[in-house]
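Q: what sequence does this backbone want?
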């Protein structure tokens, strides 16, 4: 049996709770290193697609304003994408007409370029579809304003952002992201 086959079997055998805990342990490691003012040099670790999926489904569940039925993360060089199945309850937008259009269960796809270096990140949104239909930028802006800005007022998809916890760089590769801190 090849090393690749063994790694694939190990990835499939990891439960969502274990995968989420694995990513949380990595986050804690990065935070601890950031707090260590005597630390010199850099370190790195890899984050996998399955860890990201499990973390979003378990640890971030309370932060998502709609019901997340499922998510599949796709990491390719320089790009992060997610296929998600979401249920939006009636009355969630505050507008009866918009509620009539968006409430229910939908498949959402989001894709963008993610780069991070010198402690600064940049996400360039490339594509958003709902049930296979492209979502216009004006609607994306309205949804960000309604659902994201109240919780994260500084979010601006057009601007670079400081990477958290002393992260120096993020390199998105095939099936994983390398975090340097």
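A:
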């Amino acid at each position: 049996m090849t090393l690749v086959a063994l790694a694939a079997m190990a990835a499939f055998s990891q439960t969502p709770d274990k995968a989420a805990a694995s990513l949380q342990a990595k986050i804690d490691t990065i935070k601890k290193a950031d707090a260590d003012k005597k630390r010199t040099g850099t370190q790195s670790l890899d984050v996998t697609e399955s860890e990201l999926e499990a973390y979003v489904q378990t640890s971030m569940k309370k932060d998502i304003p709609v019901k997340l039925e499922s998510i599949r993360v796709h990491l390719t060089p320089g790009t992060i994408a997610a296929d998600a199945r979401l249920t939006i309850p009636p009355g969630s937008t505050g507008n009866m007409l918009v509620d009539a259009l968006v409430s229910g269960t939908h498949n959402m796809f989001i894709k963008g370029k993610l780069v991070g270096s010198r402690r600064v990140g940049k996400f360039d949104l490339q594509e958003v579809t709902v049930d296979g239909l492209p979502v216009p930028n004006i609607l994306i802006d309205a949804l960000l304003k309604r659902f994201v800005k109240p919780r994260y007022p500084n979010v601006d998809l057009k601007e670079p952002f400081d990477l958290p916890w002393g992260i120096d760089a993020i390199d998105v590769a095939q099936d994983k992201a390398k975090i340097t801190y």
